[in-house]
Design goal:
The structure holds 2 protein chains of 2 kinds. Chain A is an alpha/beta fold. Chain A folds into 4 domains: about 70 residues; about 140 residues, no CATH class; about 190 residues, 3-Layer(aba) Sandwich (Rossmann fold), CATH 3.40.50.410; about 30 residues, no CATH class. Chain A has a 6-stranded mixed sheet. Chain B has 3 domains: about 150 residues, Rossmann fold (3-Layer(aba) Sandwich); about 45 residues, no CATH class; about 110 residues, no CATH class. In chain B, a hairpin with a 3-residue loop joins strand 6 and strand 7. Chain B starts with a helix and ends in a 7-residue tail after the last helix. Classes of the chains: A alpha/beta, B alpha/beta.
């Protein structure tokens, strides 16, 4: 049993669950206390000692039955239900029908005599089906099917079964008994398949343990580092779930930074009050707390290339509402649109979805310069000396007028202008990118190719220095 | 010390805490292996209650420490009571004068004073905070560290040190070692990732929202005055609300509050009016309330027509969208 638990732990590790030596030692101590008599208790004991993150619970639940499974339901032998006469008839019929068909006789032995396959038999079948090469859990059902087919579960078998039943009927077996026999055969087939499936599952898990490099489960930290452009639908969905936690982390950091600010003006009143206990000797200095929450104006390009970044940026910013004084958002492709109302009316997830839905990307119609000029004309009042203006976009302007004058105007009024660009800095300024012209006018320009970089960029916004 | 898990379960039940097999197993193991328990799960599923109930069944003193951002050692471990030290110095000034009276030089006086230093840095002036209280307690205690995920990462590292060997060194006093090993339970709402090292030292327990049956048992236990029929309806409604896509799902404690409210209002059945009046006990966001009312309204219609409401409930919530604005 100990060996099996050690194998199980190795299996967990292969599935991406971090299990330390101390934890596996705990697992053994827990088992010592609880014994292995009760399967549910055993599972609880292993789970509480080995799995320390709710994210890893599914992996545990998936692997547990593979290692400590019953091996699947046992096959039933019909002789308990059939009369000796009927048993004799069955044997005769099978002998007549099968003759020297070795393969079919083996299969019938499982299905109609309820002979459970031995471990060796299973192993042999599995080797034939190519299980030793399998490393991915999704191959399990396919390989099981393949093993069943190899065993002879196909059309030939169906025919044979019909012939057998016909023959038995001729030999005088009652309808009732025949139906029961067919039922048992079908149940046995299912049980056999389940046994094989569990065996294959365990083998795959074991294979994965022996070749840990083969598997790369998608985990949070890795996804954070992946470029937005290389993410699939599924991964984007997974990242969306992470945004909330990321926001919680950024929020606590931003709040902490506000509180710990030791740069502020000396707060004489509070200093005297706190130092009363030191007999008014000013040992602990108190500073005026600065509640300088950033005021944001976001100008987002929503053309195809920048979409995922914009989506995550908007989500993050609006999840962080409570740390921000106010946020106004504008999106543009060929012209600028104020979308703040969407965020006022809907929850961030819905609002982001709606904004992106209402502004479908066109085909080479981005007009950054015109959008900036329009912004200057109509919305410049949203920018004041406390506002940080964030432009999110690749700066690609289809060789149109970049309208640096408009940008200059915005910069003059704003506290800070930050440009976030999803492209690698090496290709800034190449082709129709006007990034290099805008850059000198910005206070900062960052690359935000993945969620980690984006998080860092957002975090910097709260830096009030 | 418990003999088996059934005993833990019945002891917890006696404290009005309905534990699943898993919870009982973890508590049993924590008791046997003397390991801290880390409890995670959504807010209001009874994580803190578990700590309290556990303290009761072990007949230990409960020492609770609520974590928050910016919690530091002086708030969690100990602090010198400056004011008291000052006061004593003032009051004992004459005595000090006597003591230093026969010294001639400043150095001599300082030496003399240094000999008496121990008086001012003794346990008398030490203000123990929860962690130190748990360590120096004369009786065995249970330390409940609530919402550890709210504390900062540095504090977590510090806590780790204390939890691993239950001793604290106070520079002026030396090392204080625990007389009795305290049992420790930590709760977390999972708003941030806890460090691997902390998790490694703990047994892990995830408590999710209870099943309909379990929640019904809880409501019946905590609010015995509510008619069984009503309790059933109420719990089913709460379970249905949890399946909706809401900003904040109703917790078990809110279910109990709601059940109490229904008793107070003497409600006979869950009609639309009762719901409208009391839904705010369950849902704390205006948006959620509106949404729930809209969807529950649909349910009531469905119920009248005898449709399969459960299926509609599952289907309607995630797919629900407001029509796009033109």
């Amino acid at each position: 049993m100990d060996q099996r638990i050690v194998e199980f732990i190795a299996g967990l590790r292969a599935a991406g669950v971090r299990v330390s030596l101390a934890e596996s030692a705990d697992a053994f101590r827990a088992i010592e206390q609880l014994g292995i008599g009760d399967r549910d208790l055993f599972r609880s004991a292993l789970r509480t000692t080995l799995v320390k993150d709710s994210v890893d619970v599914p992996a545990f639940e998936k692997l547990f039955p593979l290692y400590f499974g019953s091996g699947g339901p046992p096959l039933t032998n019909p002789d308990e239900e059939l009369s000796p006469d009927d048993m004799q008839r069955l044997k005769d019929a099978m002998r007549d029908l099968l003759g020297d068909n070795e393969k079919m006789r083996q299969l019938m032995r499982y299905l109609l005599e309820g002979a459970n396959p031995t471990r060796e038999e299973l192993e042999q079948m599995a080797n034939q089906a190519g299980v030793p090469l399998a490393r991915h859990p999704y191959q399990q059902s396919w390989l099981t099917q393949r093993m069943m087919r190899q065993l002879g579960m196909d059309e030939e078998f169906q025919e044979l079964m019909e012939q057998l039943i016909q023959k038995l009927e001729e030999m005088g077996m009652s309808r009732e008994t025949l139906r029961r026999l067919a039922q048992i055969a079908a149940e046995n087939a299912r049980a056999l398949q389940e046994q094989m499936s569990q065996y294959v599952g365990a083998r795959i898990a074991q294979n994965a343990t022996e070749n840990p490099r083969e598997r790369q489960p998608i985990r949070g930290p890795d996804l954070m580092q992946r470029a937005f452009s290389s993410l699939g639908e599924r991964e984007i969905a997974e990242l969306r779930n992470q945004v909330r936690r990321l926001a919680a982390r950024l929020r606590s950091r931003a709040a902490l930074r506000q509180r710990r600010g030791k740069r502020g003006v000396l707060d004489a009143k509070r200093t005297i009050r706190t130092n009363l206990r030191h007999a008014s000797v000013p040992i602990e200095l108190q500073h005026k707390r600065r509640h300088l929450k950033p005021k944001l104006v976001l100008i987002c390009d929503v053309s195809t290339s920048v979409r995922p970044v914009v989506e995550f940026m908007l989500r993050l910013v609006y999840e962080l509402q409570d740390q921000i004084h106010s946020a106004r958002s504008f999106v543009f492709i060929d012209d600028i649109v104020d979308v703040s109302a969407e965020f006022a009316q809907h929850r961030p997830e819905t609002a982001v979805e709606r904004v992106l839905d209402h502004n479908p990307p066109g085909y080479y119609n981005t007009n950054l310069g015109f959008s900036l000029a329009h912004f200057c004309k109509d919305f410049l009042d949203t920018v004041d000396h406390r506002t940080t203006v964030i432009v999110l976009g690749d700066g690609r302007n289809n060789f149109l007028n970049p309208r640096l004058d408009a940008f200059q105007e915005i910069k003059k009024r704003a506290r800070k202008v930050v440009w976030l660009n999803p492209e690698n800095p090496r290709i800034w300024g190449s082709g129709d990118s006007d990034m290099l012209q805008y850059m000198p006018l910005c206070d900062a320009a960052h690359e935000v190719g993945n969620l980690a970089q984006l998080a860092e960029a957002v975090d910097r916004l709260f830096d009030t220095r | 010390m418990f003999k088996d898990i059934a005993e833990v379960k019945s002891a917890l039940a006696a404290q009005q805490y309905i534990a699943t097999d898993e919870i009982a197993t973890v508590i049993f193991l924590a008791d046997k292996l003397e390991k801290p328990v880390l409890v995670e799960g959504p807010a209001g599923v009874g994580k803190t209650e578990l700590g309290k109930a556990w303290a009761c069944i072990e007949q230990r003193d409960l020492i609770r420490m609520q974590c928050y951002e910016g919690l530091d050692e002086t708030k969690a471990l100990y602090e010198w009571e400056y004011a008291k030290q000052m006061l004593y110095t003032q009051l004992l000034r004459d005595k000090l004068g006597d003591l230093l009276h026969d010294t001639t030089t400043l150095a001599q006086a300082a030496d003399k004073l240094a000999e008496e230093e121990d008086v001012f840095f003794s346990k008398r002036f030490l203000l123990p905070r929860p962690l130190l209280r748990a360590i120096v307690a004369d009786k065995p205690s249970l330390l409940l560290i609530d919402e550890i995920d709210r504390a900062d990462a540095e504090f977590e590292a510090f806590l780790l040190e204390v939890l691993s060997d239950f001793q604290v060194s106070v520079p002026e006093l030396g090392t204080l070692k625990a007389k009795h090993m305290p049992l420790v339970i930590l709760t977390s709402n999972n708003t941030r990732e806890l460090s691997e090292a902390l998790k490694r030292r703990c047994l892990y327990l995830f408590i999710d929202y209870p099943t309909t049956e379990a929640e019904l048992r809880i409501v019946k236990l905590k609010v015995p005055d509510l008619a069984p029929q009503m309790a059933q309806q109420a719990v089913e409604l709460v379970q249905r609300l949890r399946k909706l896509d809401l900003k904040k799902h109703p917790s078990v404690s809110e279910t109990i509050d709601w059940a109490r409210a229904l008793v107070m209002l003497n409600a006979k059945n869950l009609d639309e009016k009762t719901l409208e009046n009391t839904l705010t006990v369950l849902l704390k966001h205006e948006h959620d309330v509106q949404r729930a009312q809209r969807i529950l309204g649909e349910f009531n219609v469905a119920e009248d027509q005898g449709d399969d409401e459960e299926d509609r409930g599952k289907g309607a919530s995630p797919r629900y969208r407001t029509p796009p604005r033109k």
